[in-house]
Amino acid sequence: MALPPAAPERKLKHRRSIDVHVYARGNGLWEVDAEIRDTKTRDAKLAGGLRKAGDPIHDMLLRLVVDEQLNIVEAGSETRWMPYPGQCDDHGDAYRALAGLNLLKGFRAAVKERLGGSLGCTHLTELTQVLPTAVIQAFAGEVIDTREDSEHRPFQIDRCHALRSDGEAVKLFYPRWYRGKQDSATTSLPSATRASETLP
């Protein structure tokens, strides 16, 4: 994979940062704090007044409480910096509507239906899109079993290009669950033997 070359004379104008922290409460529930922040390298004249370079244009927090089945138990948002004070945050915390959704079962479509367009904030709604995989990363190895020797197929198989069940990564690291063509020399060997022979 190769990136387009960066121009030596390029100048940073805008930065958007997204930060997601996932915390275990210790009672079977988890908190997800997702923040989005936009800053500029120049002063910006906004409808609500002048915003100095480096001061946030947007600074927003979305918090979910989820259970170990990825059901959203509680949800809410906070807008700390916004271009239209008193307007951007005047949605009566529409993001409470996320409660009752499941992060893995039609989540993104349900968010669009409940909070798309003028029903919510463009930036907070966009922020929801990164939450399913962020929570999966937090749950991996703690709530979700990702081991090859598990009784059940590891959760991550067939959820991305690299870990497709007929691909080389699954053949190497999860041979028991490999569904591609077998080499004639290894077909008769136990999966554990094949794994030890093919791992670097």
Explain what you see.
The protein is an alpha+beta fold and 200 residues long. The chain folds into 2 domains: 14-139, Enolase-like, domain 1 (2-Layer Sandwich), CATH 3.30.390; 145-200, no CATH class. The protein is built from 5 helices and 6 strands; from the N terminus they run ββββββααααα. It has helices at 107-115, 122-127, 131-139, 168-173, 191-198; strands at 14-24, 29-40, 44-46, 49-51, 56-67, 72-81. The chain has a 4-stranded antiparallel sheet. Strand 5 (56-67) and strand 6 form a beta hairpin. It is globular.
Q: What shape does the CA trace take?
A: globular
**Strand fraction band?**
25-35%
CATH topology descriptor of the largest domain: Enolase-like, domain 1
Distance between the termini: 22 Å
Q: Spatial order of the strands in the main sheet?
A: 1-2-5-6
Please, how many helices? 5
What is the N-to-C succession of helices and strands? EEEEEEHHHHH
The biggest sheet amounts to: 4 strands, antiparallel
CATH architecture tag of the largest domain: 2-Layer Sandwich
* Class inferred from helices and paired strands: alpha+beta
Can you give the helix content as a percent range? 10-25%
Low-confidence stretches: 186-200
Mean pLDDT: 88
Tally of separate domains:
2
**Overall strand count:** 6
At the first level of CATH, the class of the largest domain is Alpha Beta
What is the rounded Rg? 22 Å
